[in-house]
Amino acid sequence: MKDITTREDIEILVNKFYDKVIKDDLIGFFFTDIAKIDLSKHLPKMYNFWESILLGNPVYEGNPMRVHFPINEVSALEERHFNRWLQIWEETIHENFEGENTETAIARALNIARIMNHKMANARGN
């Protein structure tokens, strides 16, 4: 297996991840029922997000934290949800890639999940 080194690699990873996550029994409903994401619009944002993080190309514009607060108000985003998100992310990565950027993708996702979990809990007053 190869490392994540191109935009195409990121698109493969993100596509395979979303194929799994939207069908997941624990967290899929956040994507399909609550956020009702349009994959044709959402996936390019995710490609840009991860390309910015992993390849250092500043192509992402937005505030990922801000868009999650309204979801959290409808249905609490809890630690178990972030843990499942991470589990699917790591599983998808390890099925397709290995190397330095691959490990960075896992480490950065862990940090993102921790920060998001903390901020969502604070927003709920927990």
From TrEMBL:
Residues that bind heme: 68, 118
Gene3D superfamilies listed in its UniProt record: Globins
InterPro entries named among the record's database cross-references: Globin-like_sf, Globin/Proto, Hemoglobin_trunc
Superkingdom in the source lineage: Bacteria
GO MF annotation: an example: oxygen binding
Keywords, comma-separated and alphabetical: Heme, Iron, Metal-binding, Transport
CDD domains: TrHb3_P
Protein name as annotated: Hemoglobin
Organism per entry: Epilithonimonas lactis
